[in-house]
Write a structure and sequence with these properties.
Layout lengths: L6 H13 L2 H8 L3 H15 L14 H28 L5 E6 L1 H6 L1 H11 L4 E6 L2 H10 L4 E5 L7 E16 L10 E2 L9 E2 L13 H4 L3 E2 L3 H9 L5 E4 L10 E8 L3 E9 L6 H14 L2
Parallel strand pairs: 1-2, 1-3, 5-9, 6-7
Antiparallel strand pairs: 3-10, 4-8, 4-9, 4-10
Length: 291
């Protein structure tokens, strides 16, 4: 049967050796000498061998000499583990894996991450970006702690907290007849060469759903979609955050009838607890985005 080793008793043995006597060790530990001697004796009884020679001196037995470096190693590892745990609880250490849809990753995360790391400089963050299905898959597999995405359908496997709403509009080139408009109705898009993309399913179950059936193009990659739009191949619908503002030739016109929007929020597993670092990220993003 393995002996039950108490860290405090091992620490007493090390202090007796380091202070070169029971009396000096008791003074250093702010304990009475009888209490210290009793604790060491109890440890010896558990081990079945004496650690110190008889006579009350700090002279180690051969068995004590064998145990001493091992006690020191165990106490060192115990203290290191304790410090690591406390650091993680206090958000002074840890790693956070996140995933976000591309529009959020490029528009919101740079500022959010910069401010978060300024607040928690010792935490490390990894960010993956992909479409909503990709983000959902990473969260489900436990490969990331949190996802920033839109939830297409509710699922008891996940917990989703909506944070912001992102309205859908029409994107076209600057020389398109729509380019100078301040708003559009879905009927005005009929007959236009509509390019569908990964967010086009936001039009499902809305008055604008018939537009999807007349579309001859589907492009999932944002770079390719942008190239098609800049080339004047057609128009598309995108949430406002997904609109590539850096392209001067493109325009975003709000779609007002119907008003369509997606809800962006934090996605996490419903049955798995977050690490202290991930909890800090969750609280931070919520505080920053919910106004």
């Amino acid at each position: 049967m393995l002996p039950d080793l108490k860290i405090q008793q091992l620490r007493y043995v090390l202090t007796v050796v380091d202070e070169r006597g029971f009396h000096a060790a008791a003074r250093h530990l702010h304990r009475t000498q009888p209490a210290l001697s009793m604790a060491v004796k109890e440890l010896e009884q558990r081990l079945g061998q004496r650690l110190f020679e008889k006579g009350g001196k700090a002279e180690l037995t051969p068995f004590g000499n064998y145990c001493l470096p091992r006690f020191r190693e165990l106490v060192t590892q115990h203290d290191r583990l304790g410090r690591d745990i406390v650091a993680r609880v206090d958000k002074r250490a840890g790693h956070i894996d996140m995933a976000a849809v591309p529009s959020v990753a490029s528009r919101l995360m740079p500022t959010l991450l910069a401010d978060f790391i300024a607040l928690y400089p010792n935490l490390k963050v990894s960010l993956h970006d992909g479409n909503a299905d990709y983000v959902r898959g990473l969260v489900a597999a436990g490969e990331v702690d949190l996802g920033l995405t839109s939830l297409w359908q509710e699922d008891e496997e996940f917990s989703f907290e909506g944070l912001i709403r992102d309205a859908v509009g029409v994107v076209c080139r600057d020389d398109h007849p729509f380019a100078t408009r301040t708003e559009l109705r879905w009927q005005e898009l009929q007959g236009q060469p509509l390019i569908r993309n990964g967010t086009s399913r936001l039009l499902d179950n809305t008055a604008a759903e018939p537009l999807l059936a007349q579309s001859a193009f589907y492009i999932s990659n944002m770079i390719s979609l942008t190239a098609m739009l800049v080339a004047g191949i057609g128009v598309t619908t995108l949430p406002r955050l997904a609109f590539p503002e850096e392209y001067e030739r493109l325009r975003f016109i709000p779609l007002t009838r119907p008003h369509v929007e997606r809800e962006i929020g934090l996605l996490k597993p419903s049955r798995r607890s977050l690490s202290p670092a991930a909890q800090a990220m969750e609280a931070f993003i919520t505080a920053q985005l919910v106004r």
